């Protein structure tokens, strides 16, 4: 019987432990978590979501404060067309965040950044170009294009000196999405270095509709694997979404997948950015405590805990400070908020059930996104006398994926 350590993920002749920790935002996949993955010979992600606010937290900068002051006159205006990100600030914050991580990197693994393309930032093309180029300038090993993948993204950086040097990958949830991306980028003569195939059991935003339960990761992976084989395209496939044990990972690795991307079990790692009390909520959750809803203003379904504080709140939009998903001055949450404000002109007792202010709530760790198997987290650790659960280090979780067999999970010592 094999374990994950019997396989290797290969990039340009170099071998890595085929475990990738997904890029969970906002700053759930912290630098510390990514660095551990790299130290252990795998691949870790940081997230570039809300980079200005992340830089403020880590480096004491004032990007968010300055933006708030600049656009304070828009606070009571529904049309946010006039709010723009300072591209210089976006560049500087990205370089600070990425550069700091890369300077601290140790071990034989890699560190990637997860780029959520659905962060349109009221100027999607310009801001995305800056985010991507700044990450490359700061020395990131690779970039994973995710959440709102645009088929022309690579064209934004084709003139960058590291365009063919850095690892550039994409996340798709269907063969059709991959085919469109490849067709649109054919003239670049630059294939993705890897393709993450994310299934319907993943956490956070899903690449499916509310009929997600009709789909199956293994079926999608098999379709894409056959397509690549037929087209003679040697692009490594990474399976993601619902891979809870090392044995789950091996079942994919034995069938032609080059690696696996995992995240749910690392949400509660010591190195995760989630506050400890929120980690306990994840550990306490049962299967019925998890839902897929449509409260994200991005239009994508999201999987999260039902008791997430972000659900059914009436928070005033904070586009002046954040505004990361503004597009042409609009956001679905803005529409919902001002609809309710008409019914409650005093701004009190507003409860918005159909959407959430994603930027503010994600920034405050109030959107408790999670994978389908979050209810199994309690089975990976031990309960303490006070009823809480022991929080494990990323190394313990990584090694369990790497060496476990027969669906066994390595529990910490008592």
UniProtKB/TrEMBL annotation:
Gene3D superfamilies: Aldolase class I (3.20.20.70)
Keywords of the record: Flavoprotein, FMN, Oxidoreductase
Keyword flag Flavoprotein: yes
MF GO annotations: nitronate monooxygenase activity
Highest taxon in the source lineage: Bacteria
Protein known as: Nitronate monooxygenase
Membrane spanning stretches: none
UniProt-listed PANTHER family: 2-NITROPROPANE DIOXYGENASE
């Amino acid at each position: 019987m094999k374990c994950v350590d019997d396989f290797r993920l290969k990039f340009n002749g170099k071998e890595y432990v085929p475990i990738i920790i997904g890029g969970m935002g906002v700053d759930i996949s912290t630098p510390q978590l990514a660095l551990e993955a790299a130290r252990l010979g795998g691949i870790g992600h940081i997230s570039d979501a809300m980079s200005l606010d992340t830089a403020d937290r880590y480096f004491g900068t004032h990007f968010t404060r300055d933006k708030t002051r600049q656009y304070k006159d828009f606070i009571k205006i529904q049309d946010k067309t006039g709010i723009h990100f300072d591209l210089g600030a976006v560049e500087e914050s990205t370089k600070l965040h990425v550069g700091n991580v890369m300077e601290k990197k140790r071990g034989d693994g890699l560190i990637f950044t997860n780029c959520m393309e659905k962060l349109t930032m009221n100027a999607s093309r310009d801001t995305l170009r800056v985010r991507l180029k700044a990450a490359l300038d700061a020395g990131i090993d690779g970039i994973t294009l995710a959440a709102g993948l645009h088929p022309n993204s690579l064209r934004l950086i084709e003139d960058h000196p590291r365009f063919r040097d850095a690892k550039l990958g994409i996340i798709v949830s269907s063969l059709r999405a991959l085919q469109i991306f490849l067709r649109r980028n054919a003239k670049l003569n630059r294939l993705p270095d890897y393709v993450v195939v994310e299934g319907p059991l993943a956490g956070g935003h899903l690449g499916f509709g509310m009929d997600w339960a009709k789909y199956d990761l293994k079926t999608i992976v098999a379709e894409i694997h056959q397509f690549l084989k037929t087209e003679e395209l040697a692009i490594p496939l990474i399976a993601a979404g619902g891979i809870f044990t090392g044995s789950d990972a091996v079942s994919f690795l034995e069938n032609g997948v080059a690696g696996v991307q995992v995240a749910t079990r690392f949400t509660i790692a010591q190195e995760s950015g989630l506050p400890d009390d929120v980690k306990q909520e994840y550990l306490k959750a049962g299967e019925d405590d998890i839902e897929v809803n449509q409260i994200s203003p991005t239009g994508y379904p999201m999987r999260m805990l039902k008791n997430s504080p972000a659900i059914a709140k009436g928070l005033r939009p904070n586009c002046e400070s954040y505004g990361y998903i503004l597009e042409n001055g609009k956001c679905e949450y803005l529409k919902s908020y001002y609809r309710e404000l008409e019914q409650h002109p005093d701004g009190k007792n507003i409860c918005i059930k159909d959407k959430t202010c994603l930027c503010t709530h994600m920034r405050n760790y109030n959107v408790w996104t999670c994978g389908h198997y979050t209810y199994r987290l309690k089975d990976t650790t031990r309960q303490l006398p006070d009823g809480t659960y022991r929080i494990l280090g990323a190394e313990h979780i990584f090694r369990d994926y790497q060496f476990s067999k027969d669906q066994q999970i390595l529990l910490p010592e008592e």
